Amino acid sequence: MSVTRRQILAGLAGVSALGLGAGGARYWLGRPEGAKTHDYELIAAPLDVELVPGRRTSVWAYGGQAPGLELRARQGDWLRVRFVNRLPEPSTIHWHGIRLPLEMDGVPYLSQLPVLPGESFDYRFRVPDAGSFWYHPHTASGEQLGRGLVGPLIVEEREPTGFRHERTLSLKSWHVDGQGVFGEFSVPREAARGGTPGRLSTVNGEASPTLELPAGQVVRLRILNLDNTLTYRLNLPGAEARVYALDGNPVAPHPLGREYLLGPGMRIELGLRVPAVGTALPLRNGPLRLATLKSVDSGETAADWPAALPANPVPEPDLAAATSLRFNFEWAAALSVNMEQGGAFKFWQINGQAWDINDRSCAERPIATLQQGRSYIFELRNVSQYQHPIHLHGMAFKVLDSNRRKIDPYFTDTYLLGRNETARIALVADNPGVWMFHCHVIDHMETGLMAAIKVA
Ligand code: C2O
Ligand code: CU
Ligand code: CU
Description:
The chain is mainly beta and 456 residues long. The protein folds into three domains: 5-156, Cupredoxins -  blue copper proteins (Immunoglobulin-like, Sandwich), CATH 2.60.40; 165-296, Sandwich (Immunoglobulin-like); 323-455, Sandwich (Immunoglobulin-like). 5% of the residues lie in helices and 40% in strands. The protein is globular. It binds CU-O-CU linkage and copper (II) ion (CU) (2 copies). Residues 94, 96, 136, 138, 265, 391, 393, 436, 438, 440 line the site of CU-O-CU linkage.
């Protein structure tokens, strides 16, 4: 199951150079007709930015920005990204929510070896589903994501949708002080609770920005939670907004309602009817303003609500024939740590097992083995006082029901499991490999709340 450096190098030799310059990232707009590959060179490197006015913060950027460059591809096409590591430490890229082969999944030692400083790695895969996805490392996640290595990956529908305008809003908070200096990304006493929050909230790397939107149009807002810890209580008071997709899969359009809980790793796509010129709408997290949406003259005729987005080709689980498995997400009081021996804090566990982030052999002991092609129902039981955005790599799953709220079944890659909630999800185990199954509160994932699920 593990990968050797020789295999990686052999793999690289087979790919011809993309011929891109030293620019942060470049998109081949002029690609020939029918050549269905979207090519990028994506450099990860330190970068000084101004998060706090008048102060420099040394972040880690993808393509010269943090959050990273927005990558785009079209559904059914290939995406090729040459990842160049100019960071001071090893890294990988994981493509959150994309159904792809294990070798492209970015999990160190399982998918590939970590990409060392000065090295590069070519990711190449087909994107089967349209929607809002994202990318991030799967190495030293607390610090690497915390320093800014998170970015949107947008997969456009094959056919035009009714939306003529769209905006991507990447939400992230930063673990910086008032001088813009990074503090701890993870504090044990917080990791054992809800996770260590950042102090400075930003949208697209800016604190409380004003975004101009075309008056009278229905704009597609892709809101991505790229934060390590925070669950945003999203609300748009006074706005006419409808939900079009959750976590990269379309839903029947319905009003946003009072608020939506967007956990780490989750995404929501809204249709927003932009009001008359001069109106300013707040996008908020609970009572806190994240951004101001300002209507400006567009010179276009008013648009109507677009129809539902086309469904993605996710296989429908056969519930009658499905095998049920239960997963308990628990708080493990055991503060047993042995830092000298490279042990990690273990505050959390799944079915009595805590993942050890420093132990490469964990993936060799999958918590469940699924038979390829069969349908499964997972009963997810949160027996803790904290919520956990539960994420699975490699396959989308359908949320069936919950003991805490009414669910209209929908496909997703991340489900926010509330405290003491039991929910059922279902999937077809159609992607062979060993897939990470974890909480996306990075602190939780790094202190035990991760497991491997094998499909064979
Ligand atoms: Cu966003 Cu293991 O993933
Ligand atoms: Cu993922
Ligand atoms: Cu969690």
